[in-house]
Design brief:
186 residues; 6-stranded mixed sheet; 6 strands; alpha+beta
C-alpha cells in the first residue's frame, strides 16, 4: 500500500479505531456520511452540487446513497464491506479535489448506457489506493453512483479500458447533450 496522501482523509480502521465494536462502527460511518453528503456544505464538482440517493428502500432507515458507498452489493442483506466502509471518508475527499486533481487522481468521463439512456459517467480513480468514486451527470447536478475499494484485477482492467476510451472533457461534461462527439482524452 502507498503512503498516506496529505490531501486524502485518513481511512478508518474497524479494529483499531472501534475495537471491533460493530454498532459503534456503523453509527460512526453513517454519521460521517450524513456530514459529508446530506448536510451543507454539500460536495461540489464541475461547479455543480453532488447529490446522493436519499431514498430509503429497506428497513435500515439509512439512505440508499449510504449503502452505495459501504455495502457488499447484496440487495437482500445490507451488510457493509469492511474495506469499502473503512474508506468512506475518501469519497468526499476525492470529490473535493477532483476539479483540480492531484497527480495521483485520475478524473474522466465516459458516455455509457444507463437505464436505456446515454449518460455521462464520471470516474475519480485513486489507482494506487484501489479506490474509485463514480458520479452520473444530470442536467444541473451530479449524482453519486458509488464509491468502492477495487478488489479484483478484472475491475482494474475495466477501469483502465474506460480511461483509454475517455471522452473529451470540456465538450462533453460542460454540454448537457451526452451525444456530443469526442476526439481525445482530458
Amino acid at each position: 500500500m502507498c503512503k498516506q496522501l496529505e490531501w486524502l482523509p485518513r481511512k478508518l480502521d474497524y479494529n483499531n479505531d472501534f475495537g471491533g465494536n460493530w454498532d459503534e462502527f456503523i453509527s460512526h460511518i453513517y454519521n460521517l456520511f450524513c456530514k459529508d453528503f446530506l448536510k451543507k456544505p454539500y460536495p461540489r464538482f464541475d461547479n455543480r452540487k453532488v447529490e446522493c440517493d436519499r431514498r430509503i428502500s429497506d428497513g435500515t432507515k439509512k439512505e440508499d446513497g449510504f449503502w452505495h458507498l459501504v455495502d457488499c452489493d447484496e440487495e437482500e442483506d445490507r451488510l457493509p464491506d469492511l474495506r469499502r466502509a473503512e474508506k468512506l471518508p475518501w469519497a468526499r475527499g476525492i470529490i473535493d479535489y477532483a476539479d483540480s486533481p492531484p497527480s495521483e487522481l485520475k478524473v474522466w468521463g465516459n458516455r455509457e448506457k444507463h437505464k436505456g439512456k446515454k449518460v455521462i459517467i464520471v470516474y475519480m480513480w485513486l489507482e494506487a489506493f484501489d479506490y474509485v468514486v463514480i458520479l452520473k451527470k444530470l442536467p444541473y447536478t451530479y449524482m453519486l453512483v458509488s464509491g468502492y475499494h477495487i478488489k479484483y484485477g478484472h475491475k482494474r482492467r475495466e477501469l483502465r479500458k474506460k480511461y483509454k476510451k475517455r471522452i473529451q472533457w470540456k465538450s462533453a461534461v460542460h454540454s448537457n447533450d451526452a451525444s456530443t462527439p469526442s476526439t481525445h482524452g482530458r
